[in-house]
Design a protein that fits this description.
The chain is about 45% helix and about 15% strand. It is an alpha/beta fold. The protein is globular, with a radius of gyration of 18 Å. The N and C termini lie far apart (about 55 Å). The structure holds ribulose-5-phosphate.
């Protein structure tokens, strides 16, 4: 691997464990100010020290993140649509273009760029071309590309299907993505086996309880994922810091699921006690 590319990637995927806990806060690029991400600075600040990388758009990076941060940045560079179109024409959410150049990503000292691909949609060809173009540009600058196998509204069911996700991840790797982000599914090991680059898992919608979210993380690691790029199940949790610490315990510390959940409860109790003592 070319030195610059390897160096950037090793800032995100920690060489000590070969794994990563990425914090995703890019949701506003098509969802606007969603619950608990209305003020990204407030959401991110207490979590930054526990994140191996932060995934976000350039606007939120510039306006809400301290430039002195040492946390590596994964810059979302695709978009161009919004949730307001969803009811009218759900497939249009997949109509993404490249919104930020690789030069700009270099200027912002990003450690990787990320885009969504929509395999099986009307915009499959366009979004795969976006990926191929970014990889070509990335090769000129030593910039790794993270391909996100987005499913969009029309493919919500397929988004849980190993065969579909294996197809999307493999195509992303074939086109040159340095790593791939996908969803958890029952036969995730088949998805990982067919994908020659590292796979990280998104959390998806906020689950009813933290144990369910930690189970996804635990099962993903057991099935070969090298970590997570998670958002809502961290910062929409009752205790986001406790949640990300417990995820780290699984990803980097090889903790069992019940150990990680125990850690979550201890951290939760500590935070509640500290709050009570201070009021
Ligand atoms: C949206 C994204 C998000 O970053 C991704 O879905 C991760 O966040 P969450 O864990 O909330 O699903 O790429 O397209």
């Amino acid at each position: 691997m070319e030195w610059g590319l390897e160096n950037r990637l090793s800032r995100i995927i920690k060489p000590e464990t070969g794994r990563t806990v990425m914090l995703a806060v890019d949701h506003g690029y098509f969802l606007g100010p969603i619950n608990k991400l209305e003020n990204p600075r407030e959401t991110v600040s207490p979590l930054l020290e526990y994140a191996d990388a932060l995934m976000l758009t350039r606007g939120i990076l510039r306006n809400c993140i301290d430039a002195k941060t040492e946390t590596p940045i994964v810059l979302r560079v695709s978009g161009g649509n919004s949730i307001s179109n969803k009811e009218k024409s759900p497939e249009e959410l997949a109509n993404e273009t490249i919104t930020t150049s690789t030069q700009e990503a270099v200027r912002l000292n990003a450690s990787a760029v990320a885009l969504s691909i929509y395999v099986g949609t009307k915009y499959e060809h366009q979004t795969l071309k976006n990926l191929a173009m970014l990889v070509d540009e990335g090769m000129q600058y030593g910039m790794p590309v993270l391909a996100v196998t987005a499913v969009g509204k029309e493919l919500e069911e397929k988004g849980k299907d190993a065969k579909y996700l294996a197809l999307s991840c493999r195509i992303a790797a074939e086109l040159g993505a340095s790593f791939v982000k996908t969803y958890y599914c029952d036969e995730l090991e088949k998805v990982v086996k067919g994908c020659p680059v590292p796979v990280v898992i998104a959390g998806g919608k906020k689950l009813d309880n933290e144990l369910d979210a930690l189970k996804i993380v635990y099962d993903s690691i057991q099935k070969g994922a090298i970590g997570v790029d998670m958002g809502r199940n961290i910062w929409q949790s009752e205790n986001p810091a406790a949640m990300i610490k417990s995820i780290r315990a699984i990803v980097h510390g090889n903790c069992l699921l019940d150990e990680a959940y125990h850690l979550f409860n201890i951290e939760q109790l500590k935070a509640k006690t500290a709050k009570r003592l201070c009021t």
